[in-house]
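Query structure, 234 tokens:
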């Protein structure tokens, strides 16, 4: 079953700066491209860091502040002061950059953004060279898929190819990304798996699994083998 990946939604036309790009030029790039951060790359395209609006605003935020001479000044505060005094991308950027691959599933990319508290991820190839960028908004593009496409994927990839359900055995409806499964299958495990796999189809918002079944085969799985059944040992 096909899983939507970062490469399906990422932007390939990426604005970048080099480590020696001056502060004012970085602002020009961010403003002209209407973006909130820009990757910093070397001459070979390897991502060295990211300069965000937050990094750039430190120079504005700390204008007029007296240099601190506190012995126990927090590490983050010291780092912010260094960035506030920075004149080029090398001293402004957050490094190392949090990156991802084009083959990363959208779910994994979303979890990475949440864990690292970032709004975008530079997309790199296997060698670490930039090939695109993906934002939170890009990850939501999968939910713009037409209902008819979602219905085709659930019907073909899940019901026919994976579960080998006969035509007409399951009724499938999709409205605004909400999938409804109705009908009757032989086993309870098949009904459960149909609902689980349908949730993994790109663009599915919710699955309403109304499938009925003839045999509850999950009971036998919970009971395990009968007492005295020989167990093969490899």
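Result returned for the query:
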């Amino acid at each position: 079953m096909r899983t939507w990946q970062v490469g399906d939604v990422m932007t390939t036309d990426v604005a970048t700066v080099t480590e020696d790009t001056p502060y004012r030029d970085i602002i020009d790039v961010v403003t002209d491209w209407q973006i909130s951060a820009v990757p910093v790359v070397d001459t070979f395209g390897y991502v060295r860091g990211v300069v965000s609006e937050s990094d750039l605003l430190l120079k504005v935020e700390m204008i007029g502040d007296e240099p601190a001479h506190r012995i126990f000044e927090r590490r983050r505060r010291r780092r912010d002061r260094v960035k506030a005094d920075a004149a080029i991308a090398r001293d402004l950027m957050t490094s190392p950059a949090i990156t991802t691959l084009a083959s990363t599933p959208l779910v994994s990319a979303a979890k990475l953004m949440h864990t690292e508290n970032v709004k975008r991820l530079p997309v790199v190839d296997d060698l670490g060279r930039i090939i695109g960028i993906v934002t939170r908004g890009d990850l939501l593009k999968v939910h713009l898929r037409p209902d008819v496409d979602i219905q085709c994927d659930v019907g073909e990839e899940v019901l026919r190819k994976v579960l080998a359900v006969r035509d007409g055995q399951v009724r499938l409806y999709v409205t605004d990304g909400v999938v409804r499964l109705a009908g009757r299958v032989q086993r309870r495990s098949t009904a459960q798996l149909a609902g689980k796999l349908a949730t993994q189809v790109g663009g599915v918002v919710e699955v309403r699994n109304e499938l009925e079944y003839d045999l509850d085969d999950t009971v036998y799985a919970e009971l395990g083998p009968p007492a005295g059944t020989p167990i093969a040992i490899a």
